[in-house]
Amino acid sequence: MHVPDGFINAPTSAVTGVVAAGAIAVSLRGARRELDERTAPLAGLVAAFIFAVQMLNFPVAAGTSGHLLGGALAAILVGPYTGVLCVSVVLLMQGILFADGGLTALGVNITDMAIVTTVVGYALFRGLVKVLPRTRRSVTVASFVAALVSVPAAALAFTIIYWIGGTTDVSIGKVATAMIGVHVLIGIGEAAITALTVGAVIAVRPDLVYGARGLQQRLKLRVNGELVDAPGASAPEPAPAPVAARSHRKVWITGLVASLVLAGFVSFYASANPDGLEKVASDKGIDEKAKEHANADSPLADYGVKDITNARVSGGLAGVIGVGVTVVAGSAVFWAVRRRRSDDASPANTETTV
After folding, report:
1. The pTM is what?
2. Is the pLDDT of residue 306 over 70?
3. Which residues cross the membrane (predicted)?
4. Residue 244 counted as domain residue
5. Collapsing DSSP states into helix, strand and coil, what is residue 347?
6. Fewer CB within 10 Å: N-end or C-end of the chain?
7. What is the DSSP letter of 4?
8. Is there a domain that residue 164 lies in?
9. Which residues contact 181 (CB under 8 A, 6 or more apart)?
10. Does 174 reside within a domain?
11. For residue range 101-125, what is the model confidence (pLDDT) as tens digits?
12. Domain of 203?
């Protein structure tokens, strides 16, 4: 759903740029509370994983494909504020290095793909885990539903943005019907990928899933014939594994290798059909005023390495480079945010009340 330059007029693009910048500023502050010793080492990896999986377009209808957006997945794994930053890092890398998503439309893409998917997905996820049984399986089910809804929500957000600032005269009703219809189908793929990923992490390291924290059952006491929560007590969880066994290193390396394999090898077998937005834009005439990307001559444009004629090698190498750059850029951002939190919490910056 990467919006290219020319779909949305300059004033609307500027407004969404301000919205995106404001959301990123808020997320940078909010991420300080989320990035602890568990999430901080993995946040950059989550961004790289989303980059890799976004290269895997899957068929959803005749002549149409879809790909992961990743907002719900990132929010559930590392927190909603950090999730916004993860997807924003991915979009920035894609726009600058791979000419995917217009540079003047970066604010539109961040607003649509990072903010809307994360906010809608995580809000629905939190609502579901509060009413479902407090189990790990419920987290996976809630992840599926949250991701499913987040994609048509992003399609609706794009439709509203296009209604406000679209550059072509197209019936907004037809755009809405086409966009939401195809993205409901794409949402099923998004939901499956999200649930499988969250379920896999929960199976080996439930403590690393931000959205699964605090779900243990509280102990009950019978008082005057009624069951009440035991104050300050909760059901015992399994004894923690030794520190060495619980190191993030194994999970981090496994996730990085998986990302490299997906981007460097599996991506070659991705669907070549246009994604949902591209298909709707072509069918409805939204793309009449689309502009060539400012970085169309980039050495990595269109997810291929310039001057390498073998398509498999070119695409695979571009994917590997993308994963590497994204994990480094993301880790740098989250390390800086985490360090800022540590500085804010240091004794020198803490006031003592007498």
Report:
1. 0.89
2. yes
3. 7-28, 40-60, 72-98, 110-129, 141-164, 176-204, 251-270, 316-337
4. no
5. helix
6. C
7. P
8. yes
9. none
10. yes
11. 999 999 999 999 999 999 999 999 9
12. 10-229+256-341
